[in-house]
Structures are given as C-alpha cells and as structure tokens.
Design goal:
Elements: H1 3-17, E1 28-35, E2 38-51, E3 59-66, H2 78-86, E4 92-98, E5 101-108, E6 116-119, E7 124-128, E8 135-146, E9 149-161, H3 197-209, H4 213-222, H5 236-242, H6 246-254, H7 269-272, H8 277-285
Helix pairs in contact: 3-4, 4-6, 5-6, 6-8
Length: 289
C-alpha cells in the first residue's frame, strides 16, 4: 500500500470513528485559556450531566475545564464557580455538549461579575473517543472580543465525573416549645410594590427553568421588569427564548423588553431563537433583527 493510500485510509477511519483520545490523563486537561493577552494553564477537567435547554427529556454533557483543582466545589455549582472566578481564585470554562455538537461555553474569570456565555459557533470542537462516563476532545477559539475583553483558547481534555462529596450528618434539631395559639393578625392584600424586584426576577427564572410556563406568565403579569437579568447577566427574555416559551416571550415583548441585546457580539436574540420557531416568529414580528 502506498503512503498516500495509507494516509487516506487513516483519515477515513478518523472521520468515521472519531479522533483518538487526547494524550492527557483522565480528569485532566492540557492547554491554555487567554484573557486580554494573559494566559492561564488549564489542567483539570470534570464532567456531569446537565438538563438540555430545550428538551427536558434529553441530557447535555457539561465539561468544566479549570486552572486549579475544584476541591470541594461541585462542577455543577455555577454560582460558586462564578464567585471564585470573580475573586480570581480560578479560571473556568464550562462546555455544553449536545452529543457531538458544541452548544456554548460559559466562562468565569477574575473581575467578571457573573458568567459570560460565548456561542458554540465561535469555537472549533473536535470530540475524541473515550471510555463510558468520560468526555474527551479538543477545543479551540481564535481571538474573539466580547464585552470589552479578548478571549482565546487551545485545550484538549479527558473529563471525568467529580467524586461525590459526602455531607456530614446533621444533628436533629430540638423540638421548639409549644406556643399558645393566637388569632392571626389581618394582612393587607398582596401588591407588587411589596415584592423585591430581584426576588421576582429569581422566581421568574426559576419558573422557566422548571418549564412552568403558567407560573412564569403570572410573574410577568405581576410586573417583573421585562429587561431584568439573572445573577449571571442573562436577560429574562433570553431565558424565555432558551426554554422555548412563546407565551412568555410574547408577554415580555408586550411589556417592552429590549430586542437589541446581544449576549455575545453578533449573537442576536433572533439568532438565539433558532431552535424555537414560535418564539422566533414573535420576535421577528416585533422588529427583532
């Protein structure tokens, strides 16, 4: 067999069966993440199953790449990753995979208030063969600007599920002393003026994450700010689109939600609605580009 034929055969087998596993140990990564010309070495890789953003019957593979070991932090603890990233204690890239397709990458780093989400289309992702329960591949991002920062990365990984941390047993609380029954005082009727706006936003996001469209609609009608954002800076309209809730999208549009916000440069709300045609129709009719 000639050298050319051997090369063509190897290329064909690679395309058919996937790339061989990266040359890194299980639970490790090898590569760099660069923020504004400051490079960090990514050395650790953990994975877990996360709920699909559009289909509750599916699971996505979430790969968390960090420059330091997570220790007692669960890779699925988005809040703790964001807080430690903000304080400069770690750099974290959370890669969302739908099968062999890269959906997006969440990034946490020093000084960032929350999490930045970069679209999967910006990256080159190549899956690799891995044992059951592991996730392997390589991820590359040519220099891209977003929210005033320049990002790039080149890394390969073999991610493994993080060990389960056993919680210490808690002592049973003592029973409180009985309190004499009293006639409850009359309460004034509930009004939106007495509800913390941040709490309403959190309730709305929670309802959408639980796929409770009726509850989400009630909260919008109660007066949630249509341009409110969650703790990571994602607007509630984007949540309604990601969770494919056309009625909530319509209610937020009617409440004058901003249709020009881009979670990443060039990544418009209409593009984000590509997987939810009904929401895309509403947004396009409202003038979204």
């Amino acid at each position: 067999m000639t050298c050319l034929k051997r090369c063509l055969l190897i290329a064909g087998l690679t395309a058919l069966f996937g790339r061989s596993a990266p040359a890194v140990d299980t639970g490790r990564a090898s590569g760099t993440f660069t923020l504004d010309a400051q490079a960090s070495t990514l050395a650790y890789a953990a994975c877990y199953e996360g709920e699909d953003m559009y289909d509750s019957s599916k699971k996505n593979t979430m790969v968390v790449l960090t420059d330091v070991a997570l220790g007692d932090v669960s890779p699925s603890d988005d809040w703790e990753l964001a807080q430690r990233g903000k304080r400069g204690e770690l750099v974290a890239l959370t890669v969302r995979l739908d099968g062999a397709k890269l959906v997006n990458v969440h990034i946490n780093h020093k000084g960032l208030d929350g999490t930045i989400v970069l679209p999967g289309q910006w990256f080159t992702y190549r899956p690799a063969k891995a044992a059951a329960g592991l996730a392997a591949g390589s991820l590359t991002l040519a220099k891209r600007d977003s929210d005033g920062h320049a990002y790039s990365c080149t890394v390969e990984f073999v991610a493994a599920p993080a060990p389960v941390q056993k919680a210490e047993p808690e002592a049973a609380p003592e029973a409180p002393a009985p309190v004499p029954a009293e006639q409850p005082a009359a309460l004034p009727p509930a009004t939106t003026s007495s509800i913390d706006p941040k709490a309403m936003t959190a309730l709305l996001v929670s309802a959408m994450m639980q796929k409770d469209e009726d509850q989400a609609l009630k909260l919008v009608k109660l007066g949630v700010d249509p341009n409110a954002k969650d703790q990571y800076g994602v607007p509630v309209l984007n949540w309604a689109v990601m969770m494919c809730m056309p009625r909530v999208v319509q209610a937020l549009v009617d409440a004058k939600a901003d249709l020009t916000y881009q979670r990443a440069p060039g990544f418009t709300i209409l593009q984000e609605a590509g997987a939810c045609p009904e929401a895309a129709k509403i947004l396009k009719a409202a003038g979204a580009k």
